[in-house]
Amino acid sequence: MELLGFDIVFQHWERLWAILPAVALVGALLASDFFGTRGILAKSAWLRLQTDKTRPSWKQYIRNFVALSFLVSLLFAVWAEPLWRTIVKEPVYGKVCTIFMVDVSLSMKYAHDVPPFPDRLSAAKAVLDDFAKQTTTDPELRGSYCRAIIPFAGSAFTYMSPSTSYEEFSAAIGNIDETTVGDPGSNLLWPFWEYEQIMKENPNAAADTHVVVLISDGGKGEETFKDIPHIQAIVRRMPNTVVYTVGIGSVEVTKLPNGTEIRSSVKVPLEKRDQTGAFVEYALQDPKNPKSAILYSELDERVLKMVAGADGRYIFYENRSQLLEELKQMILRHRKVEETTSHERLNPAPELFLLPAFVIAFFLFGYTRRLFALVMLPFVKRRKQST
């Protein structure tokens, strides 16, 4: 950030015109007082005799006029609401794009094991919403960063192409649900294919840093681990790509005597609920057969860690603050200056006029002599006592 200059402006500059009649009124009052006093002394020889040494001096009246006029001008300037205007040159950062791959399969909607959220999909969307707010409110992250959303289930498509629009991203978060992708299942490979297609269509973005965040319950039971080599191959083909995964689901943690923690996912039934959260029915393997087996889902952290490529880049949804910090540091490390802009900042500055007005009034109305007398009083008393 570079300061280019500053000056003072007034929010209600038209009020400054009141200074002219106010100064004229001060001059008229002082002139009236001066000539009135001189007239009284001219009519009385006795008063002239008594006040010969204190008769009004036109030089003193001029000094008073200048001081009072300046004081009145300062007070009217405060009334006009002065603003300190600074022109600041700031860099605009960018060249970092975050691609969110959001699992919108039925297990994400019908698994209600992630309080305080009503379902896993709501918890996933909360991660996106937190990230959107962070990139717009965190002063360190000021910039023009693109975001994209790829929802997936049994297939995937680009719901929101890379865009720097916060409003578009927020609207997309609110709109995606379990009906966004029509194909059932949880195919983790599809969103990476879609991501590769986005990069092919935007060759100019190859030099940018791409942070891929896959949010899912892992699709355990659908043999998603078979797609890991293909996902890893796509990531290797995509330059400057870093993958994070966020696991949504239930986990039981067992702590051993040596301090080691063992995590095991919890198998939960898929339930359909109404808008009030009341149970309606279980999701069945064959919806047309009421005697069909109930569908269950459990978080597959092993697969999600393999997709991320490192344990440190897999984050459980309850630790989403850790994810936000990771993404923030990733952006700060890899962002680049795209352009510089000049911004105008306006801050109230009444003190610039109130302080000199107070000093002038202090001297003008004789408080300096009183203060001096108050300070010297102890010394005078001590001198009298000593004599």
Task: Tell me about this structure.
There is one protein chain. This protein folds into 2 domains: 2-87 and 346-386, no CATH class; 96-334, von Willebrand factor, type A domain (Rossmann fold), CATH 3.40.50. The chain has a 6-stranded mixed beta sheet with strand order 5-4-3-6-7-14, sandwiched between helices. Strands 1-2-15 form a 3-stranded antiparallel beta sheet. The radius of gyration is 38 Å and the shape is elongated. The mean pLDDT is 84. It is of the alpha/beta class and 387 residues long. Helices cover 43% and strands 24% of the residues.
Annotated CATH homologous superfamily of the largest domain: von Willebrand factor, type A domain
- Known CATH architecture of the largest domain: 3-Layer(aba) Sandwich
CATH topology of the largest domain: Rossmann fold
Q: Report how far the terminal alpha carbons are from each other.
A: 67 Å
For the record, what CATH class of the largest domain applies?
Answer: Alpha Beta
Shape: elongated
